[in-house]
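pls design
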């Protein structure tokens, strides 16, 4: 708990601005610290709903030796198609600089329910079927609740 200027405790919270991409920590009661400059996005933060939810899905794929390009092509196609899903906020495909043949898909969705619907979708099952021959191991999937996140939605 963080004390307010009057000594009353308040909970810290973080709100994310999606309309202009700024992330602004806001104290639990919406106030700002007594000392310090006035934040230029203070008014904009008042428009951010308290119940805004974003769920993140990560999927880590390790390619079989010699199948790196095939796996990358399969995942790149999937990313382009999945970005058009209604509840998708953003999807990125990255490759590891420290683990050869490792690709990670990072997805942001409107909610955990949207993630589950996507995992059950034909797009996801088609991608899994196409990726299977290129995989060295089973993919590692994880779902996260965001604390602070930014996207371009």
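designed seq:
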């Amino acid at each position: 708990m963080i004390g307010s200027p009057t000594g009353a405790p308040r909970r810290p919270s973080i709100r994310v601005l999606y309309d202009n991409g700024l992330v602004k920590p806001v104290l639990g009661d919406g106030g700002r610290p007594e000392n310090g400059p006035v934040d230029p996005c203070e008014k904009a933060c008042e428009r951010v709903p308290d119940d805004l939810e974003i769920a993140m899905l990560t999927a880590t794929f390790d390619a079989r030796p010699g199948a790196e390009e095939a796996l990358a092509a399969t995942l790149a196609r999937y990313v382009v198609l999945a970005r058009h899903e209604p509840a998708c906020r953003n999807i990125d495909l990255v490759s590891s600089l420290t683990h050869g043949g490792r690709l990670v898909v990072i997805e942001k969705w409107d909610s955990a329910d949207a993630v589950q619907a996507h995992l059950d979708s034909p797009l996801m099952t088609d991608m899994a079927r196409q990726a299977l021959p290129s995989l060295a191991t089973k993919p590692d999937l994880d779902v996260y609740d965001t604390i602070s996140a930014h996207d371009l939605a």
